[in-house]
Design goal:
Structural class: alpha+beta
Radius of gyration: 26 Å
CATH class of the domain at 2-190: Mainly Alpha
Number of helices: 10
Mean pLDDT: 92
Shape: globular
Helix content: 10-25%
Largest sheet: 10 strands, antiparallel
CATH superfamily of the domain at 2-190: Chondroitin AC/alginate lyase
C-alpha cells in the first residue's frame, strides 16, 4: 500500500509540474511517459485514465517537435537521441501489450529514430557520443558499454521485423528479453539478418553525413557534422561545427571526446564542448560557438551543407559555417571531404577572409594509442602496437604538435588521450590525407606533392597503382600528366599504363591527359565518375550512365540524348 501511495503522489506531482516551459525536451517526454506508465498499469485510480491520455497526447505531439523529419533528435546529441528512442520504444510496447491503437506519429517516428541509430553505429558496434551525455538510462536492463546503443536496435528488430536492425545489433540484447518476453525473443530469432540497404546516408535536416564502405568490422567509416547547433537554448549542444569522427581497419580512431561533466568543473565543461576538443578547425584560438555558463551560449555558428554526393566508388560532402564572422577580421570556414571507398579520405579546409589568421587543425584519437609525428605527417598506433593510420598535411606552412587530450566514454569519467594539432599562421587552405594502413599490403601507400600551375596536386603510390589528386577553385590546374578545371580531380593509373583505369571529377567542365583534351562539357558537371573497361569508359553523372570512348567530341550530345537511361 505504501508503494501505491507513493506512485500515486508521483503521478500527481508529474501532472502538476510538467516541464512544458522550462525544459520541453527529454524532461517533458520522460515525464509524459511516466504518466502513461502509471495510468496504464494502475487503472484502479480515478485519475488513471486522465494520466494515460495526457501522457499519450504529450508524447504524440512531441515526437514531431523533437524528432526531425530525417529521424535526428533536435538537440543534436546522440545520447539524448538514445533516451528519446527508449521513451518511444517503451510507449510502443505498452500500447501493443494493452491492445491500444498505435498513433501514426509513433508508427513512423520510432523507426526513423532507430534508422538514425543504425547508420550512426560504427564498425566496432559503438556510437560516437556527440553533444551532451549525462550517463543516465530510462531503465537499466543490461550492461553494455555506455556508447553501445545496439540494444535499441535489437528490440526494434523484433518490434518492426527489421532484418537490417538485427544485422547491425549483431546479437539479441538482454533488454529485448525484458521488454518483449520470451515470445519477442523467439520472434527475433526467427527473423532473417540482412545488411542495411545503404552504406552512406545523409540526414539533411539533422546535418549528419555518414560515409562507409561496408558493414563488416573492418569497414571504413566517417561521420561528418554540418547541422544545426541545437534547439531551444542549445543547452546540450557542443561547438562541433564541421567536425567528424572516423573508424578504419577494425579500429575506432578519431573520436568526439564526449562530455565528462555538466557542473562539476567549469573548466572541464567548457573544454569538452569547445571547438578545440573536436576534430575540426579553430581560427585565432576561438571556438566556432562561444559558451555562456553550463547550458547556454553567447554566440552560435550556423552550418550549411554545400554539396553531397554518394556513389558506389566515392562519397563527397562539403559544408561551411559562419561562426567566425564575429571576429574583428570576419572569416568563414569551409570543409570538404572526399572519401575514396576501400581507400582513403582527402579533407580540404579553407578559411575565407580579408584578414590573416592563425589556423589550428585539431585531431583527437581513441585511447590508448601513440602518435609518431614527422615533418608534415603523423602515424597513429592504436593500443601502442603498430601504426594503423597516417595523416599527411599539405599547406603553405605550418607544423604538427602534440597536445594533452581527454576522452570521456561515460559521464563523470575521463581518461588521457592522444591529441594533435597542425598549426599555421598564414595558410588559407590546408589539405589533409587520412590513409588507413592495411597489414596485408606489400607496400604502404606513399604521398608526395606534385608541381602544378594552380591549386594543389599530389600523387599517392600504392602496390601496383598510383593516384593523382588535383584540388582547385574552378581555374585550370596543370601538371605534367593531368590538367583539369574541375574543383576535384581524382585519377587512378596502373603501373606502365598511360591511360587512367578510373577517374572521379567534381564541379567542372574539362579534363586533359598529357596535353590532349579527353573530355569537355559545355555545362558544369556536378560530378562524373568513370571506369575503364578495355578501350571504353563506363561513365556516370547526375543524368545517368553510359559507355563512351574517350576522348569524346560528342559528350554533351550523348548525355543530352540519354533520356531515362540509368
Amino acid at each position: 500500500m505504501r508503494a501505491l501511495k507513493f506512485l500515486y503522489l508521483n503521478a500527481r506531482h508529474l501532472e502538476t509540474y510538467l516541464s512544458t516551459y522550462f525544459s520541453p525536451n527529454t524532461h517533458l517526454t520522460g515525464e509524459a511517459l511516466g504518466l502513461f506508465y502509471l495510468g496504464t498499469l494502475l487503472p484502479e485510480f480515478i485519475e488513471s485514465e486522465r494520466w494515460r491520455r495526457k501522457g499519450l497526447l504529450i508524447l504524440t505531439e512531441e515526437i514531431s517537435q523533437q524528432v526531425r523529419n530525417d529521424g535526428v533528435y533536435f538537440e543534436q546529441s546522440s545520447y539524448y537521441h538514445r533516451y528519446t528512442t527508449d521513451f518511444y520504444t517503451h510507449l510502443f510496447v505498452l500500447l501493443r501489450q494493452n491492445n491500444q491503437p498505435v498513433p501514426v506519429e509513433l508508427e513512423t517516428g520510432l523507426p526513423a529514430l532507430l534508422d538514425h541509430l543504425m547508420y550512426l553505429t560504427r564498425p566496432d558496434g559503438t556510437t560516437s557520443l556527440f553533444g551532451d551525455d549525462d550517463g543516465g538510462r530510462l531503465v537499466t536492463l543490461d550492461r553494455p558499454a555506455v556508447n553501445d546503443f545496439r540494444g535499441a536496435l535489437s528490440t526494434g528488430a523484433a518490434l518492426f521485423r527489421r532484418s537490417d536492425y538485427k544485422y547491425v545489433a549483431n546479437s539479441s540484447a538482454e533488454e529485448t528479453l525484458w521488454l518483449l518476453g520470451a515470445d519477442g525473443l523467439r520472434e527475433l530469432d526467427r527473423l532473417e539478418s540482412q545488411e542495411p540497404e545503404k552504406l552512406s546516408v545523409a540526414f539533411e535536416d539533422g546535418g549528419y553525413y555518414v560515409m562507409r564502405d561496408g558493414w563488416n568490422a573492418s569497414a571504413n567509416y566517417l561521420r561528418f557534422d554540418c547541422g544545426p547547433h541545437g534547439s531551444l537554448s542549445c543547452g546540450h549542444a557542443h561547438a562541433d561545427a564541421l567536425s567528424f569522427d572516423l573508424a578504419a581497419q577494425c579500429q575506432t580512431i578519431l573520436v568526439d571526446p564526449g562530455t565528462y561533466t555538466y557542473t562539476g568543473s567549469e573548466e572541464m565543461r567548457d573544454w569538452f564542448r569547445s571547438t578545440a576538443a573536436h576534430n575540426t578547425l579553430t581560427i585565432d584560438g576561438e571556438s566556432s560557438s562561444v559558451s555562456d555558463a553550463s547550458f547556454s551560449w553567447k554566440s552560435v555558428a550556423r552550418s550549411e551543407r554545400v554539396n553531397w554526393i554518394s556513389e558506389e566508388r566515392f562519397d563527397y560532402v562539403e559544408g561551411r559555417h559562419d561562426g567566425y564572422q564575429r571576429l574583428a577580421e570576419p572569416a568563414t570556414h569551409l570543409r570538404a571531404i572526399f572519401f575514396l571507398k576501400r581507400g582513403y579520405w582527402v579533407i580540404r579546409d579553407r578559411v575565407i577572409s580579408q584578414g590573416q589568421h592563425t589556423v589550428d587543425l585539431h585531431f583527437h584519437f581513441e585511447p590508448p594509442g601513440s602518435v609518431d609525428i614527422q615533418t608534415k605527417s603523423l602515424k597513429f598506433a592504436p593500443n601502442n602496437v603498430s601504426p594503423r593510420l597516417e595523416m599527411v598535411v599539405f599547406a603553405d606552412n605550418g607544423a604538427w604538435s602534440k597536445e594533452d587530450g581527454w576522452v570521456s566514454h561515460c559521464y563523470a569519467e575521463k581518461q588521457p588521450a592522444p591529441a594533435t594539432v597542425f598549426s599555421s599562421r598564414e595558410a588559407a587552405e590546408v589539405v589533409t590525407l587520412i590513409m588507413p594502413l592495411a597489414e596485408d599490403q606489400s607496400r604502404q601507400p606513399s604521398v608526395q606533392g606534385v608541381r602544378s600551375t594552380a591549386g594543389r596536386a599530389f600523387e599517392i603510390a600504392g602496390d601496383k597503382t598510383f593516384d593523382i589528386v588535383l584540388i582547385g577553385n574552378g581555374n585550370r590546374i596543370e601538371t605534367a600528366r593531368l590538367s583539369s578545371d574541375f574543383e576535384w580531380t581524382w585519377a587512378r593509373f596502373s603501373d606502365g599504363d598511360p591511360i587512367p583505369v578510373e577517374f572521379i571529377l567534381i564541379g567542372g567542365h574539362k579534363l586533359e591527359l598529357e596535353g590532349r583534351e579527353i573530355l569537355r562539357s559545355a555545362r558544369r558537371l556536378n560530378y562524373l565518375a568513370g571506369t575503364r573497361i578495355k578501350d571504353e569508359f563506363f561513365l556516370k553523372t547526375d543524368d545517368g550512365v553510359l559507355d563512351l570512348s574517350l576522348p569524346s567530341k560528342d559528350f554533351d550530345f550523348a548525355f543530352a540524348n540519354l533520356g531515362s537511361a540509368s
